[in-house]
Amino acid sequence: MKIENIPILPAYFGVTNVGVMKNWKPKVDEFFYAPNLNNQYSPTTTITEEKAIHKMPSWKPLGDIGLKAANQWINMIGYEHELFITSSWINKYTPGDVVYKHIHYDSFLSGVYYFEDCSSIVFAESPHKSLFVSGIEKTQEQTFTYTPKAGDLVLFLSYTHHLTLPSDQLRYSFAFDCYPKNMNFTEKYNEYKFKLDHVKANLQVDAKGNRLISDV
Ligand SMILES: [Fe+2]
């Protein structure tokens, strides 16, 4: 599949359109008949109690597409890791809902699939040293906004801060977290360790995300 790799320095995010899932609405609605957990990052949105949706027969094809894209994309940005999905869930947004800025802990790469056009997702790097003016170091947060279309699959490194802008109507998305098979998932998430790894990998790609070194 063709994945567009967009540098949002110092990270990247990937996006590809994998098509709209057939008959998705009744399948999604089944999850929301039962009470749902509150999303800790949002006052109003809900997420499914089920966290292994990618293993359910009717959802496995979508999970497989997400995992295939995730593996392809991390290779584009310089990793040799092979990923597996650790968890997956569905987000439900009612009109006006927002999700506050957050990262995904205990995860290496995260993805979101949009069943239909959706309100924007904003990627934001924490304030970092970016400007030097008159010898005074200033900090500035870099943001990148993407407005998903129906069928879009968005991929990002899990340490990338992100938030969503207010939803204009009832919306659903399918989200999943991935972890490298060759790393010990029982290790506690270590942002510092991952960032070093990610930064190292980013040094091996050009501004378009093409790898500069083929065999390391
Ligand atoms: Fe998120």
Characterize the structure shown:
The protein has a single domain, classed as q2cbj1_9rhob like domain (Jelly Rolls, Sandwich), CATH 2.60.120.620. It is 17% helix and 35% strand. It has three helices and 14 strands. The chain has an eight-stranded antiparallel beta sheet with strand order 1-2-12-7-14-5-4-3, covered by helices on one side. The longest helix is centred in the N-terminal third of the chain and has 17 residues. The C terminus is likely disordered. The structure holds fe (ii) ion (FE2). The site of fe (ii) ion has 3 residues, from loops.
Oligomer: single chain
What small molecules does the structure contain? fe (ii) ion
Sketch the topology as an H/E string, one letter per element. Answer: EEHEEHEEEEEEEEEEH
Q: Give the helix level as a range of percent.
A: 10-25%
Class derived from helix and strand content: alpha+beta
Q: Can you identify the CATH class? A: Mainly Beta
Low-confidence sequence ranges:
127-138, 202-206, 209-216
**Strand order of the main beta sheet, please?**
1-2-12-7-14-5-4-3
How many domains? The number is 1
**CATH hierarchy: architecture:** Sandwich
Reconstruct the topology from this structure.
Layout: E1 4-8, E2 11-17, H1 24-31, E3 37-38, E4 46-47, H2 60-76, E5 83-93, E6 99-102, E7 109-114, E8 121-124, E9 128-133, E10 136-140, E11 143-146, E12 152-157, E13 161-164, E14 171-180, H3 191-202
Antiparallel strand pairs: 1-2, 2-12, 3-4, 4-5, 5-14, 6-13, 7-12, 7-14, 8-11, 8-13, 9-10
The structure holds fe (ii) ion.
Fe (ii) ion is lined by residues 102, 104, 162.
